[in-house]
Amino acid sequence: GCEECHGPGALHVRNGGRYALFVGEGGETEALCGRCHPQTVADFKKSAHAMEGVLGCLECHDPHARQTTKRTYTDNQLCLQCHAYQGLGTEAAVREHTYHQYDPAGSGQSRCTLCHMVPEGRTNQDGGSHNHSLMPVRPIESNLAGTVPAPPNSCAGITGCHDGSIITSPVFDVDNPDTNERLQILYDTRYGS
């Protein structure tokens, strides 16, 4: 209920009904979210975004709408407004970084989250938990997990790019160790090891 995040209702009444009880100042939001989402918050705290204090849970998530986010995974606006200082504010720069066509219309190509927030399990991009370290998951990590089915990586799996959902896109089988090894070589060539 409300008190899980906002504190005891009696204090709310005592303060004259003000919103002062909302926990969310000075990093408290992440601690509060971590009560129910400990692994997600732990992963997020490893990110440069959290360490530099430039992004928090509430920039993307609405605490009153549990299954939805303020932004969709096809929306690059939040990412590009901050990363423009790195030169990623132009169509050409996005194409060079992703090796894919720039796609502001929303069909799914060159979306920051497709590589930087890979699903943690074999759920689709629309549902389930996603990696919140905001770092790409290297292809070889699918092999290192040692499980079948293998966990998705940023190049293969269920991100909506190379999983067979786009007819013109090559399919990379995340359960095939040879495919992941070849993708890792390509990944290292483009982005470094």
How would you characterize this protein structure?
With 193 residues, the chain is mainly α. The chain has one domain. 38% of the residues lie in helices and 0% in strands. It is built from 11 helices and no strands. It has helices at 3-6, 9-14, 28-34, 38-45, 48-51, 57-60, 77-83, 91-98, 112-116, 140-144, 177-191. Helix 3 runs antiparallel to helix 4. The longest helix has 15 residues, at 177-191. The termini are far apart.
Indicate the overall shape: globular
Number of domains: 1
Biggest sheet details: none
Give the helix level as a range of percent. 25-40%
Notable characteristics:
11 helices; 193 residues; globular; mainly alpha
Brief synopsis:
The chain is 38% helix and 0% strand. The protein is mostly helical.
Q: Would you spell out the secondary-structure blueprint of this structure?
A:
Elements: H1 3-6, H2 9-14, H3 28-34, H4 38-45, H5 48-51, H6 57-60, H7 77-83, H8 91-98, H9 112-116, H10 140-144, H11 177-191
Helix pairs in contact: 3-4
